[in-house]
Structures are given as structure tokens and as C-alpha cells.
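User: Please fill in residues for this 145-position structure.
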């Protein structure tokens, strides 16, 4: 005589595990999207910095882009916190995102103060770091404890 298996419990457990995995994946995707937005906004800033030298439209676009870049940096911090705490991910991206927000704040101050000798090289460094962080997030490196 065969012992009947309780398939309801197994199905419920599998569904809960699947939902949890989907939630983690969703938060990880949000982190990648926020990081991609930040990287693209920095690329836009580099392009408008070149336009700034030749037209008044470049100045307006660079100013608007700076606000978008700063907002994208804050979004990256939010995404990193959501991927870590409720999502069960590594806290390491929070360190990257917070450090980047500090760099973005310094960049804004340098831009307002018209210090291009520091503003331009810091922008290049920020783009490189953002691209590196995006590559790490896409490959899964930097998200493990």
C-alpha cells in the first residue's frame, strides 16, 4: 500500500520560493536599471560638456543633465537599499551607491563654483566608475557578500 504524498504543501512551498526568487530578481533588475540610467546620464553630461564650449544650448542641456544625473544617483542608492534589505542581497552595492552620491555632490559643487580643472576630470572618473559598477552588476560580481 502506497503512502499518499501531500502535494498541496509541496506546491505551496514551491510557489512561495518562486515568488521570493522573483522578488529578488525584480529588485536586482531595478538596481541594474538605476545604474544604467546613472551611467547614461553621465554620458549625456560628457556630450553636453562639449556642447557647452560652443553654444548656449549646451549650457542649458548640461544644467538639466546635472539634475537628472544627481536624481539618478539618488535612485541608485534607493535601488541598492531595496536590493539589500527586503531583497536579501549584499549590502556592498549600498557602499558603491553612497560613495557615488558623495562624488556627485562634490561634482555639483565644483560645477557651480566653475572649477573645470577638477570638475572635468572628476566627471571622467565618475563615468568610468559607473560603467565599472554597471558591468559588475550585470555580471553578478559585487553583489555577493
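Assistant: Residues filled in for all 145 positions:
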Amino acid at each position: 500500500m502506497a503512502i499518499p504524498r501531500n502535494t498541496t504543501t509541496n506546491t505551496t512551498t514551491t510557489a512561495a520560493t518562486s515568488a521570493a526568487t522573483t522578488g529578488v530578481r525584480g529588485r536586482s533588475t531595478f538596481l541594474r536599471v538605476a545604474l544604467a540610467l546613472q551611467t547614461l546620464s553621465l554620458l549625456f553630461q560628457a556630450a553636453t560638456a562639449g556642447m557647452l564650449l560652443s553654444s548656449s544650448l549646451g549650457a542649458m542641456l548640461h544644467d538639466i543633465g546635472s539634475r537628472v544625473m544627481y536624481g539618478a544617483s539618488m535612485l541608485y542608492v534607493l535601488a541598492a537599499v531595496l536590493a539589500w534589505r527586503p531583497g536579501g542581497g549584499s549590502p556592498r552595492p549600498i557602499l558603491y551607491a553612497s560613495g557615488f552620491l558623495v562624488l556627485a555632490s562634490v561634482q555639483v559643487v565644483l560645477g557651480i563654483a566653475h572649477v573645470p580643472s577638477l570638475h572635468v576630470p572628476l566627471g571622467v572618473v565618475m563615468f568610468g566608475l559607473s560603467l565599472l559598477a554597471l558591468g559588475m552588476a550585470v555580471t553578478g560580481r559585487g553583489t555577493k557578500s
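For context: The longest helix spans residues 7-52.
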